[in-house]
Amino acid sequence: MKNSNSISKINNKGSIVVFILSIWFVFYWFFGHFINIYDYKFVGIIYEILWLPMLLMGIALPVVSLFFWYQNKFNFKTLSFYAFLLVVVTILVLILSK
């Protein structure tokens, strides 16, 4: 049985932050892609303000999550692996969808 200390070594604070940012990234792009955000002016304004930081996150998050995954010796039980999958799948869905 594994203790909580070994789990905390696998999922350090950086991996947790990257995973949370990846979820935010997924929510942002799917929200803008599948919902007409310009029907609501305030939401459209916030969406337009955040598009450049989210675009940069789409470039940086896979690199950072791969780095954390490398630090954990490519363990599939880490949050950095799932963060990487979330971002890559989101980018592929956005590119391949109409």
Question: Briefly, what is this?
Answer:
The chain is 80% helix and 0% strand.
Overview of the structural elements:
The protein has 98 residues and is an all-alpha fold. Helix content is 80%, strand content 0%. Helix 2 packs antiparallel against helix 3, helix 2 (13-34) runs parallel beside helix 4 and helix 3 (41-71) crosses helix 4 (79-96). The radius of gyration is 16 Å and the shape is elongated. It starts with a helix and ends with a helix. The relative contact order is 0.18. The model has no long low-confidence stretch (mean pLDDT 88).
Keywords:
single chain, 98 residues
Write the layout of secondary structure elements.
Elements: H1 4-10, H2 13-34, H3 41-71, H4 79-96
Helix pairs in contact: 2-3, 2-4, 3-4
| Major pleated sheet | none
Low-confidence stretches: none
Overall pLDDT metric:
88
Q: How far is the first residue's CA from the last residue's CA?
A: 47 Å
Question: Helix share of residues?
Answer: over 70%
Strand content: under 5%
Number of helical regions: 4
Radius of gyration: 16 Å
Quickly give the structural class.
mainly alpha
Q: Total strand count, please?
A: 0
Tell me the series of helices and strands, N- to C-terminal: HHHH
- Backbone shape: elongated
